[in-house]
Each structure stands twice: as C-alpha cells, then as structure tokens.
Design brief:
Layout: E1 3-8, H1 16-31, E2 35-40, H2 46-57, H3 63-87, E3 92-95, E4 102-104, E5 113-116, H4 119-126, E6 130-134, E7 137-139, E8 145-147, H5 153-163, E9 168-173, E10 194-195, H6 197-205, H7 213-222, E11 226-230, E12 238-240, E13 253-257, E14 260-269, H8 274-284, E15 289-294, E16 301-309, H9 313-323, E17 331-335, E18 338-344, H10 352-364, E19 371-375, E20 378-384, H11 388-399
Parallel strand pairs: 1-2, 1-9, 2-6, 3-6, 9-11, 10-12
Antiparallel strand pairs: 4-5, 7-8, 11-12, 13-18, 14-16, 14-17, 15-16, 18-20, 19-20
Helix pairs in contact: 1-3, 2-3, 5-7, 6-7, 8-9, 10-11
The chain binds aspartic acid and magnesium ion (MG).
C-alpha cells in the first residue's frame, strides 16, 4: 500500500457536485488501503473574488490582512470535502496549513516553506484517516497566517509529499497532463507522457500554468515523482520525474506567454557599473527579469532593455522611478505589445541547427524577433503579441509535428 499525496485544484472543487465527485475518488483510494493526504485549492475563482474585494475596500491592502483573507478560501474547501467524505462513510479530518505543521517565512503573500512538522499528519494517517490539508497556506513561527503565492497549492502538495516521503504526488486538474503546446492554440498538441524536472521547471518558468514553478523545484530537490492528470478522466497524465538523458536532442514543447512587458532605458551612461546599478535596484524591488539586451555604446550613452512579467509591472515601474534618482537616463519606455514564445528540451543549445530552424520558422511567417535568450534547456524569443499564436502553431509544426509519437523515457 502506498502513501499518496493528491492535490485537487480550484476547478476540481468548483461546486458541491464536483466536491462530491472528488470525495468519491478519494474514497476509492482509501478503500483500496492507501494512506492519503489530500490538498485542496479554493473553490473555482474564490481567490480572485477575495482579492478583488480586498482591492475595492482598500487601495493598497496590508499583506498580512490579505493572507488572513485569502487563506479562508482553502478552509472552505477542506471543510466541505471532509463533510462529503463523512457522508460517504470515509473517516477524514481537515487541517489548515498551520495545523498541518507547515511553517513558513514571514513574507506575506509569497511566503516560503521553511519546515514541515509532520507528526500530527502521521498520527492521523496511522489512525486510518484521510488527512485533508488546505493548500497555499502556512503559518510563521509567530502563528501568523501566510500564503505561498498564486498557484501555491501545488507547492503545498509537493512539499508535503517530500516531507512525508510519499510514494508519489498526484496533481489533479482540468487538463489531461502537460502538453507539447497549449491545446487551445494548437489543436494538434499532444500529451507528453514523461518529462524531466528540468524541462518542467523551464516550462513553468516560461508561463505553462499547469504546475507552479516552486512545486517543480521542490519535487526535484527531494526526488518526488509527480503525476499531473485530470480529475475527470482515468487516463494517465504526465509523469514529472528524473528522465535519463537522451542522446538525441529534442524539442519537447512550445510554450508561450502574453503576460510580459518590455522596459527600455534609453541613453544610460556608457560606463562601468551602470548595469550593476540598474539590476541592483530591480533586485531590491524583487522584480523577476528574463531577457536583457544592452546596446553597443554610442559615445557616452547606451540603451538597456529587459523583460518582466506583467505580474511584476507595478514593482518594475516603482523600481524604474527609484532608478531615476540613482543614475541618469534620457527616457524610459514601457512596451506592452510583446509576447514571448519558447521551445523547450534538454540540450537544445548544444545543437545550433535548432536555433536556425526556430528563427527561420519565425522569418517564414514574418514575425519580427525583438529579443532572444537561451539556456541549455530553451530558446525564447520576444515577438509582437499579435503574432504569438501563429508562431506557436508554426513552431509546433516545425519541431513536433502532428502524428509523431514521443518516445522519451520514463523510469
Ligand atoms: N487558491 C490559490 C490561487 O488561486 C492557490 C491555488 O489554487 O493553488 O492561486
Ligand atoms: Mg490553482
């Protein structure tokens, strides 16, 4: 018998019928004799609703109070799921993140897990109970309620799986797994049966929303095998695990995001230490930076451009305002017309033909490349936002095609 951590996302518990359906699934595992820890998200769009209430009642809500508010969403779900289980004769108990022993840093709204005290969960498991834990939350050493950042229930589940040394972690969602591209954009996109932690981490980082980035990193660090699959069908989904390196470099997926903003600083001083000052300020405001381009110097001036996520736009604007007090520049432009497309796969950078094929595919559809960045696992291009979908389809056709079977690995 296994110890399994399951996570059900907001769409899987969006209404009472869905909660009953989840309870039925949990019951099957429990009856089969598995030990089960079930992590749930807030029902449907609850977190968004709570956030918008906060922002209508207060122009800049204190982050501690935001956490107090947002954490209630998950509490509703755990209590209702336990009641549904009770009705089906399953012995279960609900816990908040704090009660489950999840201790975090005090950085409200994006706290990090520092420790999980698992004894209480283990005791209930020994008693034969299903333990239902509120996702996305924890508490500080001072008993303040914290949340782990949007999509944080994935991290709760993967962290609990690591701390409990679970056999594996199942992430139940409304799609069948991780796809070679967003199926809403590429109708021929296919499910990837196995993907490595590194590749999944790149994809999460590049905007694939199926698994939170920190959850992937946690799983990799502690060797937790993660199975991303649909709540509503029995089919196998995608296994995220250590996949042995393939000889053949292969583009595994095409990822895209429209949620980016390009920032251009025109006419910054062309002298040592300027890039350091710029990125020091951005780092002080914890702005996540992706691509960076610095132009060739023109006499005493040069330009610096970088890309931030839309989520960080507010912080980036405040950081640039601060920067204006530290260095001089002629002008700043915030360009909101761009999107980012990437191809992902281990070893991509070691084969120059792949970059060539990517750029010529974009040239063929006439999409102008504004910026490029690469790592060993991906090549990303910034292109006009209105060309993103067409580019994703063209790249998917070039690298992945329609009928081909993906053979890579699995253990
Ligand atoms: N309910 C939270 C959110 O919507 C956490 C989660 O769903 O993972 O971001
Ligand atoms: Mg979610």
């Amino acid at each position: 018998m296994s110890l399994i951590v399951q996570k059900y996302g907001g769409s899987s518990v969006a209404d009472l019928d869905k909660i009953r359906f989840v309870a039925e699934k949990v019951k099957k595992y429990w009856q089969a004799g598995h030990k089960l820890v079930v992590v749930v998200s807030a029902m449907g769009k609850t977190t968004d609703t709570l956030l918008s209430m906060a922002h209508s009642i207060c122009s800049s809500p204190p982050e501690r109070e935001l956490d107090m508010l947002l954490a209630t969403g998950e509490q509703v779900s755990v209590a209702l799921l336990c009641m549904a289980l009770f009705d089906k004769g399953v012995s279960a108990i609900s816990l908040t993140g704090g009660q489950a022993g999840i201790i975090t840093t005090g950085m409200h709204t994006k706290a990090k897990i520092v420790h999980i005290e698992v004894s209480r969960i283990l005791r209930y498991l020994e008693e034969g109970k299903v333990v239902v834990v509120a996702g996305f939350q924890g508490k500080t050493a001072n008993e303040d309620i914290t949340t782990l950042g949007r999509g944080g229930s994935d991290t709760t589940a993967c962290a609990l799986a690591a701390a409990l040394r679970a056999d594996f972690c199942e992430i139940y969602t409304d799609v069948n797994g991780v796809y070679t591209a967003d199926p809403r954009v590429v109708p021929g996109a296919r499910k990837i049966p196995y993907i490595s932690y590194d590749e999944m981490s790149e994809m999460a980082n590049l905007g694939a929303k199926v698994l939170q980035l920190r959850a992937v990193d946690f799983s990799q660090r502690y060797g937790v095998r993660v199975h991303v699959r649909s709540t509503f069908c029995e089919e196998e989904g995608t296994w995220v695990e250590e996949v042995s390196a393939m000889e053949d470099v292969k583009v595994k997926a095409v990822t895209h995001t429209r949620e980016v903003m390009k920032v251009v600083l025109l006419g910054v001083p062309n002298q040592p230490g300027v890039a350091a000052s710029i990125f020091k300020v951005l780092s002080d405001f914890s702005v996540f930076i992706d691509m960076i381009i610095q132009s060739e110097g023109r006499g005493t001036e040069k330009d610096v451009a970088f890309v931030v996520t839309k989520e960080d736009e507010g912080k980036a604007r405040r950081a640039v305002a601060r920067l204006g007090e530290i260095i001089s520049f002629r002008e700043v432009k915030f360009d909101d017309s761009m999107g980012k497309i990437s191809i992902v796969g281990a070893g991509i950078a070691s084969d120059p033909r792949i970059a060539y094929r990517m750029f010529s595919t974009l040239a063929r559809i006439g999409a102008n490349i504004d910026m490029i960045s690469t790592s060993n696992l991906r090549i990303s291009c910034l292109i006009p936002r209105d060309r993103v979908e067409e580019a994703v389809r063209a790249l998917h056709e070039e690298f992945i095609g329609e009928g081909e079977v993906i053979l890579n690995g699995g253990s």
